Amino acid sequence: MKNILITGTNGFIGKYLVENFKCSGYNLLFGTTSNTTNKNYYKFENLYVDVEKILKDISVDIIIHLASIIPNSFYEANIDLFIDNTKMMNNLSEFAIKNNINKFIYLSSFGSMVNTKQYDIKDYYTLSKITGEHICSIMEDRGIETASIRISSPFGKFNKKINVLNRFIDLALANQDINVYGSGKREQNFVSVESINQCIQKCVEEKVNGVYELVNDKNISMIDLAKLVVYITNSNSKIITQEKEDPLENTKVCNFSLHRVKNELQYKNPLTFKEELISYIEWKRKNK
């Protein structure tokens, strides 16, 4: 049976894949740099510097690279974060090239980019993710199939990060007022962890190369997001706008295209954003 190494399996997307990733004919190797007592996990040193040593007697056919150092905000990302993320990617790519693996699937990001064709990168975290895409190009040149999946704001089971979506849900579940910064017209694009899981599985099954953009079909404004959360939770929360300034009021959502994931990977999300949000809120209710 062939082996798939999944990095970052202690992160929220990694945890979801551990539970839900299904691909016949493959054995999954769960990699993490976090302390763990789980005997089914492979414990690596920081930045996967010892990947060659740990897996010296194991034949790896595919790597799914989810692990990343993620800042609380783009503004907090610094040169050290960029260097560490790049070193981690380089350690895994060197292992992949040396051991002639078949495929490398990399979870990338739109990050702070608006015009992705111009690579208008504004922070070190985004720079590290796009650098990872270029390292994938080097692997392609060495005969390894690669897929860089750019995702927008991810949400879903196991995600406990403090962000706007989780803040709205937590306030709604507590029947507390939801303060939407600024006018509430600023838009964002959210992609579910289940969509990410399905797209990665498609990348394992299909022939791939280059960058694939994975987002929801439509963006949603902050005011509409708050209204939807209140409706789903049947909350008594009041929605308040204009009380606080939104420092990101004029931020534009990046341009994207679902052409490649839909036409080349034959990927189709069976659920609407509302349905995905209902499922996530139910999980949060049970895991307060």
Layout of SSEs?
Blueprint: E1 2-7, H1 12-20, E2 26-32, E3 41-43, H2 51-54, E4 62-65, H3 79-98, E5 103-109, H4 124-141, E6 145-151, E7 153-155, H5 164-173, E8 178-180, E9 187-188, E10 190-192, H6 193-205, E11 211-214, E12 220-221, H7 222-233, E13 239-241, H8 259-263, H9 273-286
Parallel strand pairs: 1-2, 1-4, 2-3, 4-5, 5-6, 6-11, 7-10, 8-13
Antiparallel strand pairs: 9-12
Helix pairs in contact: 1-6, 3-4, 5-7, 7-9
Any overview of this molecule?
α7 packs across α9 (273-286). 36% of the residues lie in helices and 19% in strands. It is of the alpha/beta class and 288 residues long. The protein has a 7-stranded parallel beta sheet, with helices on both faces. A two-stranded parallel ribbon has the order 7-10. The chain is built from 9 helices and 13 strands. The protein has one domain: NAD(P)-binding Rossmann-like Domain (Rossmann fold), CATH 3.40.50. The model has no long low-confidence stretch (mean pLDDT 94). The chain starts with a strand and ends with a helix. β4, α3 (79-98) and β5 (103-109) form a beta-alpha-beta unit.
